[in-house]
Specification:
- By secondary structure, the chain is α/β, with parallel strands linked by helices.
- It has one domain: UDP-N-acetylmuramoyl-L-alanine:D-glutamate ligase (3-Layer(aba) Sandwich), CATH 3.40.1190.20.
- Helices cover about 40% and strands about 25% of the residues.
- The chain has 13 helices and 14 strands.
- It has a nine-stranded mixed sheet, with helices on both faces. Strands 3-8-7-2-4 form a five-stranded mixed sheet.
- A hairpin with a 5-residue loop joins strand 7 and strand 8.
- The longest helix has 16 residues.
- It is globular.
Amino acid sequence: MQYDVFGVGNALVDIQARISDNWLAQTGFDKGIMTLVDDAQQQGVLSRLSGINLNKCAGGSAANTIVGIADFGGRAAYAGKVSKDANGEFFLQDMRKMGVSIEVPASPAGQTGTCAVLITEDAQRTMLTNLGVSATLSEDDIDEETIRRSRYVYIEGYLLTNPVQKAAAYKAMNLAKQYGNKVALTASDPFLCNLCRDEIWSLLEGPVDLFFCNELEAQSLTGKTDVIECAAAIHKHAENVAMTLGANGSLLMHEGQAIPIEGVPVEAIDTTGAGDMYAGALLFGITNGMSWKQAGHLASHASARIVSQLGARMKNRFTQKEIMAFME
């Protein structure tokens, strides 16, 4: 079987809850950002959530993107590490149920990673991430044959901060290039662009064919403030750029051309996974016969649909007729 995209990233079970600002303030964690927490901190938060209505799904940034591709009817595969525990079994079953091919040997020790997604009334999301055994994803977990059969390899930027995971990411990128396939990288977070700036520039000049970022990540990477200048600066190094601009849509850079994509007006309830779904829809589009502009419009509509609901999984999927309409 040929795959449109093979994703490499953290395997986390997302546990989403709607909470008040006051509830969040009591945790002591900063609002609106992702914080890495240890086992004890995560257990403390999850214990406090008992009794609150929770939404669970297999998550992690790249996993959300890969599920998005499958949502549109694309063929997708994933590499991530889970443990032999209830959350690990849930993650594998959830991904397979969505149509994603995932063959990951479960680790006998440790616990599956979790991400508590705390959503306040202003639709801001505060993420507390405990990587668990996901942090042990290694070169051994990258299947060469699956990469050979994948048109794109999609790498989660977070992997660059961990030497073991980074080695897995580089193996996947190098194999993709070896077989003449494409590589996409997502910036993941503005702090990551600060931390790994030189390495990201090097990757953009090397194996990466398509770079996903939002405006804050682009500003952090380039040191510029104007989004058009940011996109142009990145496009000097990267063949293709997809920069999301929140409610203002997005900007694609392809073959020296800027392709502005307007936003879709919608009432935002929860921004969790909007960028991940944007990447999934764009990757689906460009691997299934759409032009970059058509794929950009599909991605814009897909991310709007995600922010208008709770959670990173599309509850109201696009029909085949809706998808075809973007190609007209």
